[in-house]
What does this fold into?
Amino acid sequence: MRAENTDSGPIGVTTIFGFSFQTTGILGYSAETSRGFPSWSTIPSYRSLASGRNWHLFFAWVFVLNGLVYVVASILNRHVWRDLVPSLGQIRGIGRTISEHVRFRFDHGRDYNVLQKLSYLAIIFVVLPLVILAGLGMSPAMDAAFPWIVDFFSGRQTARTIHFIAGSLIVLFVVVHVLMVLISGVWNNLRSMITGRYSVKSGEKSDE
It folds into this structure.
C-alpha cells in the first residue's frame, strides 16, 4: 500500500502478488494523507501510537475474558474431552481426511473431523496462550512486575515476533473457518447454528 503522485494529484496504490490497482480512499491514500487505512476504518481514527496501544489492550482483555469463559465452560461440560480430542482411529485416517478436504469433499456427520479437532486444540491451548503471554512480555509494566515472562521468551524481541506469528495464525484460522463454512454450504451451516438441524445427502449419517 503506497501513495503515488500523478498529474491529477496523489492516488493510493495497492499491490498484491505483483498486480497493482488504485485504492484511493480505502487503502494507501485517504483524506489527503498517505496512510495504510482510512480514518473511518481504524480505532482510533487519528494517528496516535499511545491511543492505539490503549485500544489494543482494551480489546485484548475483552478477548482474554471471553476466552477464559469459553475454556472453563468447555472443560466443565466436557466439551473438550467429548468433542475435541481426536480418537486413535481419526488420527490414523488423517491422510484420507486431508485428501477429502483438498478435493472439497466434506463429511457432514455430527462429529468434528480430525483436522477440525486438532486445529481447535492447537488454537485454544497453544496459540491463544502464546499470543497472550507474548503480549504481556512486550509490556514494560508487566516486565517489571513479572520479569520471568521476558526470560521465558529469551527477550522482548522474541516475544514480539511470537506475538505477531500467533496473531497471524488466529486470523488465518478465522479466515479458513469462514471459508470452509461458505464452501461446505453456507445456508445449511447457518441453519444448523440457529436450529441445531443439518440437512445431509441420502446415505450420509444425519445428526438430526
